[in-house]
Amino acid sequence: MLEAVTAVIADRLAAVRERIAAAAARAGRDPASVRIIAVTKGHPLQMAQAAAEAGLPDLGENRVQEALGKMAAWPDAPVRWHLVGHLQRNKAKLVVGRFDLIHSLDSVRLADALEQAAAARDLVQDVLIEVNVAGEEQKTGCPATEVPALAEHAASLAHLRLRGLMTMAPYTDDVAVQRRTFAGLRELRDRLTADGRRLTADELSMGMTNDYEAAVEEGATMVRLGTALFGERNL
């Protein structure tokens, strides 16, 4: 069964990589600069294992408890785990050191909670600031106007390493809206770099199944893909 599922994912991955390469070519970018985060939320552990077998070493999870269950059942996983969903402060101690990258830092209070948890374990946790570029009320994320202050605060904490920014575009087929959102995140990243806020890398985590090509054209270094690789949770 695992072999069959791996073959399906590998075929889908090849198609995704072709589309990423085409989008990167339109933007004059190297497609190798775009990393695919395979989002396994809602899928069984076998699907995550098949993704790794198919050549996807970066796995994303939205829910902390679901992710920790998979980690416990697969302790020697040859993957990097990414937390791509909203993170509550009371779960900070559960995630530091368990995820290679947390994509959803959205407040000073969460930064302080992560700092305290990371300090207690004597480690440095890599994070991205999640930005609500489009200002959608139903979306989580730091308002764009508050990002410089949050970036400066996060960069001052000894046990956090700020690697870049993350966003989600409005769910729409309007490519102009998608690109405007992604361009806004890229421009914000560039301003933070220019005015001395200490981003230790320039990662841009943006783009999902319905809009990743637009994200690549606007500078994404990570795209977070679930349905494009795994289907509608019924593979």
Short description:
The protein is of the alpha/beta class and 235 residues long. It has helices spanning 2-26, 45-53, 64-73, 92-95, 108-120, 147-155, 175-194, 212-217, 227-230, and strands at 35-39, 58-61, 80-83, 101-105, 125-132, 142-143, 160-166, 203-205, 222-225.
The first-level CATH class name: Alpha Beta
Task: Identify the CATH homologous superfamily.
Answer: Alanine racemase
How do the helices and strands follow one another from N- to C-terminus? HEHEHEHEHEEHEHEHEH
Strand content: 15-25%
Secondary-structure topology with pairs:
Layout: H1 2-26, E1 35-39, H2 45-53, E2 58-61, H3 64-73, E3 80-83, H4 92-95, E4 101-105, H5 108-120, E5 125-132, E6 142-143, H6 147-155, E7 160-166, H7 175-194, E8 203-205, H8 212-217, E9 222-225, H9 227-230
Parallel strand pairs: 1-2, 1-9, 2-3, 3-4, 4-5, 5-6, 5-7, 7-8
State the main characteristics.
single chain; 235 residues; alpha/beta; TIM Barrel; nine-stranded parallel beta sheet
Description:
The longest helix has 25 residues, at 2-26. It contains 9 helices and 9 strands. It has a single domain, classed as TIM Barrel, CATH 3.20.20. The chain is α/β, with parallel strands linked by helices and 235 residues long. Helix 1 packs across helix 2 (45-53). The chain is 43% helix and 18% strand. Strands 1, 2, 3, 4, 5, 6, 7, 8 and 9 form a 9-stranded parallel sheet that branches. The chain is globular. The protein has helices at residues 2-26, 45-53, 64-73, 92-95, 108-120, 147-155, 175-194, 212-217, 227-230; strands at 35-39, 58-61, 80-83, 101-105, 125-132, 142-143, 160-166, 203-205, 222-225.
